[in-house]
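Re: the request from the purification team.
They wanted to know what the chain is likely to look like in 3D before they choose a buffer screen. I agreed to run a prediction and write the result into the notebook, where they can find it.
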Amino acid sequence: MSWWRNYDEASITATIRKIRIGIDVGGTFTHAVAIESQNFSLVAQTKTSTTHHHEEGVAAGILTALLKLLQKGRIAPEEVVLVAHSTTQATNALLEGDVAKVGIIAMGSGLKRIRIRQQTQIGDLELAPGKLLRTCYRFLDPVRNFNDDVIRQTIRALQEEGAQVLVAAEAFSIDRPAREQRVVALANEMGLPATSTQQVSQLYGLRLRTRTAVINASMLPVMITTAEMIERSMRATGIAAPLMVMRSDGGIMDIQGMRERPILTMLSGPAAGIAAALMYAKVSDGIFVEVGGTSTDISVIRHGQVMMRTAQVGKHTLHTKTLDVRTVGIAGGSMPRVQNNRIVEVGPRSAHIAGMPYEAFCQIQDLEGAEPVYGAPRAGDPRDYVFMQNRDKNFAITVTGAANYLKLVPEYDYAHGGERNIERTFTKLGEEFGLEPQEAATMILDKACSRVAGVINELVESYGLNPLAVRLLGGGGGASTLLPYTSQLTKLPVELLRNNAIISAIGVALAMVRETIERSIVSPTAEDLLRIRQEAEAAVVRMGAAPETVEVKIDVDSLSHRVLAVALGSTDVRLSEQLGHPVSAHKRADVAATALATTERNVNVLADTGFFIAYATLKHTSRFFGLLQEKTRPVVIVDQHGIVRLTFKHVELEEMIVGDAADRLKHFIEVHTRYGDSGPQIPAIHLAVGPRLIDFTGLLDEKQVLSMGEIELSKFTPETPMLVLAEVKG
């Protein structure tokens, strides 16, 4: 394990690298990658089984993966600049009911006491069928009887009822947090993990805030234990680099953040793949489809942003955000079901869960004499699954086998299987149904991919995606088994991302430090937005982001009176620059033409800042049986690396320099503002300046845009070229 200790100091110094390590904890395997920060080459990769049932939980698998990676890549501890991992711990804890009993101490006085009791006494929460999160409750009146002795006595009473962790809840604590903080401090002094509602959420709504805090608290004991185990084990290797954890919104946070808010790590597995799509594959618009062995995660990326939604656990809405990920119980290992000699369904049972080898990956001799049989892969499953049986051993017939039989999986791909076994399996299956083998394989793929295609079409419609810009982006080891056929069904182009089998681990290694600040503010002023922006920026800098890399996007929701600030920053100052290399003008024009679904000769340059180029083409479409002709001018923004960063059906744009922006930006907004019964409505504004795209689409009025614009543009010299873009309705 300590092979590097044999190096002398001079040789280490001479060969020192900057290594970023990403570890993705999947349902079946834990993948680890080491990436060299200077040129983002893949130094080493390893795969080990995920240790869900180990006495140390997934921490054992993470450590094993880390140690194997260090040895395989001959990586000295001094070379490691960052270690980050995704985790299934929070999600599994909730699904399996592996949570602590939570004691709630609520506080209130006066006429609001009854209402506060109603909103904070939430009882037991159903997390999943048959899985409950149990709570116990006490109420204190801060006016009548509230001191340290009373608080300690109340904590002890809750402990006697079985509370293993504590939540402090008080109305309007986001404005006056002192009493909640005092309860938490005393609980910690008594050795009891604790959290407060204002620590978990800064939004009004006591019932929702309390429920969110209770679910967060229920995971604290197991998550704190895991965090400490991982950190202790990593330090034992000699690695002194920051240890980060994947969040459910596509960023990473420090280990202290996981100790305090483990709820933010729900869905961190799917988030890792999306982080890779954004940072590694430089995707700006598309539908990311990550295919594993048991399930497929589908999510939307638009204008370089991942789509978010309000989090839910079971039937319970929470005061936190997660990725809008649609999970389908179809993947590379999904097994077919048969009725009346026809494939009627595929999945949800997979070869992994059934404990059966894939027909595509077993030894040639294993399938000799095997025949199709019907039965339940596991106790309680329907008995109409079909699989291969040879004497006493079963082998799964899978989506992977069907895709290989139809020659949809490239020979170099992770999912490519043995041709003789696949040929034998589908010949036998075809004979069983009275079909040609190709027909049997097609029926499996059709049933499987139709479900995936249905979700994709739903996302295209619900998010109003531009069909010209939408492409399917394949990640995960099973991407080639589902995506080519799904592409045929949806008529959308497909791209399998580079290193798709380990894309999530790469995403973890390259993910940006992220923090979200959310506040309830009625009619926020420019000063309010600036304060929240500074708070979000400071948060990611505290976690290790280099200040010069931090970008903050602000959204204002006038209906719910919420302001959301999302800050992103990198631990490596040159990370964004190193992830891409400039390409020729011809290459950029070709990329633009592909995105606009035309040829290079039909695109023209509207504007060029040196880093960004705006390309357009004219489109003529017929409506009402050809009686009307509609002319449109879709536009794409391509950066110097040849990456499409923005796409528009209808956009107005103007070139200027930063020094002129104060006056010209104001005029530009005024020209494109529309007026209606609800008053002025400014367009969705983007700025392209230097190497940055600045998104102001979440701001509601001209003053907000101008104030935030002044802050963002102050980082550039007055001579810097820039574009202002207004997304308008056609």
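For the purification team: The CA atoms of residues 201 and 319 lie 6 Å apart.
Please add any questions underneath this entry.
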